[in-house]
Structure prediction request, 197 residues.
Amino acid sequence: CGGGGGGGTATSPSSLSISGVAATGAAISLGSVEARCATGTGTTTTNADGTYTVNVASGVQPCILKAIDPVTKTELHSIVEAGATTANITPVTSLVVANTLGDEPATAFTNFNAAAQAKVTSVNINTAVTRVQASTAALGSDADMTGVDFMKGTMQAATADASGDATDKKIDALMAALAASDKKITDLTAQVKTLTS
Prediction:
C-alpha cells in the first residue's frame, strides 16, 4: 500500500518559543540553555546580558529549563506552564522548581515525566512562589523576594557594563545571605522542596 497524501492545506510544525534571562545574580553570558517539554526539546546560548530565546520545534508545554554558567558550571532551572512564554532562570526559580515538583531540580529535569509535567500549573507555581518568598523573607529584607516577579517579570541582570535591576539585586542579596550563613543554594533547595506551608 502506498501512503496517500492527506487532504487540506499542509501546515509546518509550529515552533514554541520561550524567552527570559538566565542569571546567578550576574548575567550568565554565553551559557547553554536547554528546554525539555511535554513534547519536544530545544537548546540555545545566552547573550552577554543573560537574555535568551529557545525554540522548540512542535513543542508542547509544560516545559522545564536548565541553564549552565560556562565559567562556574552552576546549573539553574526553571519551569513554564502551558500558555506562558517567559521563564527567567535563576537560583530563585530553581527553588520554585524544587517546591513545585517536590524534587531536586536537576533530577526533575532528567526525569520530566507525565507525573512531573502534571504538577507544572500556574496554581502550583504561584503556591511555590509564595512559599519561596516566605523562605527568603526570613533571610533579611535585602534578600526578600516578595514584591518582584522573578519567574516571568522583566529583569536586567548585572554585567560588566551595567548594574542589575531590583530583582537582580535581591538575588545577589539572597546569595550573599546564604554565603554569610556558610550555605549554598542547594542547602536551601533541600529545605524548600518539602515545604508545604
Observations:
- The beta strands are 15-21, 32-39, 41-45, 51-57, 60-68, 75-80.
- The chain has a mean pLDDT of 87.
- The CA atoms of residues 103 and 137 lie 22 Å apart.
